[in-house]
Amino acid sequence: MDSFIMNSSITSPSESLFIGDLHLGDHARVLEITGGKVMRQRLGMLGIRRDTPVRVVHGPGKRGAVLQVGGARVALGWGVIQRIRVAIIPAESTHTGEKT
Amino acid sequence: MSDFHETPQRSPVSARLPVIALAGNPNCGKTTLFNLLTGAHQHVGNWPGVTVERRSGTMTMGRRKISVVDLPGVYSLMGGGGEDQRVARDFLLDSDIELIVNIVDASNLERHMALTAELLETGRPMVLVLNMVDEAEAHGLQVRSHELSAALGVPVIPIVARKARSRTRLMETLTQALDHPALGNMLDYGQLIEAALAALGTLLPGVPPAHRRFTALCLLEGNSDPIDPKTQHALQQISSELAVMSDETPADLIMDRRFAWAQEMAAIAMHRQGPAGLRQKITDRLDRVVLNDWLGVPLFLAVLYLVFVVSFSGGNIFLDFFDQASAALLIHGVGHLLLSSGLPTWLISIIAGGIGGGLNLVISFIPPIGLTFLFLAFLDDSGYMARAAYAMDRLMRRMSLPGNALVPMVIGFGCNVPAIMGSRIIEDPRGRILTVLMQPFMSCSARLTIYMAFAVVFFRSNGGQVVFALYVLGIIVALLTAWLLGKTALRGEVLPFVMELPPYRLPSFRSVFLQAWQRLKVFIFRVGRVIAVIGVVLFILPGIGWTDRGLRSTDIDHSLLAQGSRALVPIFEPMGIHQDNWPAISGLIAGAAAKEIVIGTLNGIYQRQNAADLMADYRDPDIAGQLLGAIKTIPANAVTFFTTLDDPLGLSVMDSTGTAEQASGAESATLQAIAAGFTPLSAFAYLVFVLLYVPCASTMGALRREVGWGWMSFSLLYGTGLAWSASTVIYQSSTFAKHPGHSTAWIAGVLAAFALLVVGLRLYGQRRDALSKPSLNRRASA
Description:
heterodimer, A: globular, disordered N terminus, B: alpha/beta, Rossmann fold, 7-stranded mixed beta sheet, two-stranded antiparallel sheet, globular
């Protein structure tokens, strides 16, 4: 699994991970938020929802992780990163989002 | 911009000022824009019934006066937010507003535009302000405001609020928008959702037509409950039909469409010109240090240490000046004027000594509190505070507290008032109440003077350690209080940590200064009123007493203060205070107004016991000399500040008895009287009582303001009970050998009372949980 992540290949949905399983610098696309409606709304307000591309800029660790989401950085606690299912994608830039 | 949908012109018959509401995401520069528009013409208060800060002000455009309301920063109006969201939504929907000014961060447009879509749904005229265009340009983006304006159907104005860039253009745009209001193009959710919204809208006859679409959206997204069974039935039917036709829930369909629209609008507004600039690299590098697993926490503690040192040690440079100058003018100067005008001495005492003395107390607080607010505003605007909260979250979570709860705790070492008011940085209401209730146990700088006076007399060789032990005891009691309440009366999970980390910015001086000034104004005018009133009461109490002929002017030994203190002595006997030491109780009573005056009261009592002429200070005051003396304290204190940067608590003065006496503010006669009234053990028990019992009047005022009368009363009773219990246990356990039966009874009584308290808090918590269950069920089913 580790070598697969390091290669940053695209995962199929069956090989999906949680943010807590990613590595620093990984790019991923959100597949699902499993934390219930309130958490989905809360994350949605910060731009984290299904199909959102994200990049790990700190962590993941016991403290949580910081994600680059579009032009913003969002810090998520440990309990949250274990509820966001993602698939790794190749590094890419988005039109208004992250500036590479 | 000519194709905006204009609404009918309003008739200018009403005398009410036109209202502009500023709405936007947190960290979009909304408050900076508010400061830019209103300048010093602001008022900071609370929204009715909640502790959400309400900023309003006025601005003048030409000859027109406009009211500006700065709404709380929210990511959405629809759901998933707390009180801030409700306040913003209710105001936008239910109040008379002429114009919504939506501020968005141009460097992060896609996410900010999601709120814009919701604001357009309110059906109010709108102007979109693209703020921070300089940052967008630094990211290699070119802003196309005309194209965005055409797509939205509302005026769009690019600005840099922090640098006041395009202020004039903004004012012109606002003037035009007020004269020719534009409602903008509402987002088209697609055939399915639009049909569902139309169908639901017909079932809402009680809702004003302009709000039906917004209400229908809330219903369809599951953010509000249907008002009647008929609507509920229809909603269920529509939702299931939509789920069958689209394979998705209506909430997901709506959210997907809204974010897709935000993406489209952002693509229209922004054109990539080149690669990201230096700013992104700086953010990356700074975050690597600030968020580092090993460096993050020590760095935060170092920043807090710096804030603490500069605010309180730095504030002390001017504290004596403010104190002595205001005493010279407001007490001695006013007293002299009143005496010269022939007023009776009792009235002079009340006005000059009571009211003047109270104001003097408030004014001397200004430098440290003002500096604290200044630094908090600076840290907040710089983008660091959110990162610090993330760094501390894991540590604080173990005590049922959110990460940012540590900030007010450290501020509390200087003064509990800004600490309580600073607890507003905590978003979760439960975490905020817990944090507020911890603050009275943090040893503020005012308590230090009491510790020092007693340390000089009783703990000369190890005064520093005793004072340090009291500080640590305060922290332990504060954390245990949060833990206890978190397990009983305020049970619940700490909200999962989800927070946007704003970009690093160099805050503008104007914005930081105005934010700090608004908070300081609240302290001076609201909290100051309480202090002044209590100051008057405490000035009267030592001057009048109950005699055979009723209430009469008496000497201090027969005053109400002495009579009341003597009556209370039996309560304090278990902690080692005896009948002849009634001034110690008077000091505690005075300490309920301000801890600074505990030693002052003791000084006053001993002086007054000997003084024959209370008007001596007012007869021939050397005001010029006093003012000169006050000015001279500034350079002297500045030297002290720079030589004691490594000792912000001032514990080093303990090494020298003379310096410590001076630092405590107590005169030698007072110290001798303290030495006669206490033993080292009873003195330590007394200091523990001072640490834990009722906070000062300013803190009480701040508590009431932030958590309401109920929790304020709990804090007073709990603190006083805990203070008495801790002091009694310390005294009784240390003198156990002398009277084992007596001590056992007291200690057992304290433990039984504590057990009762825990049971009571648990019962309260269960009742609270039971009351909130219906809403939890509703959330779960949703």
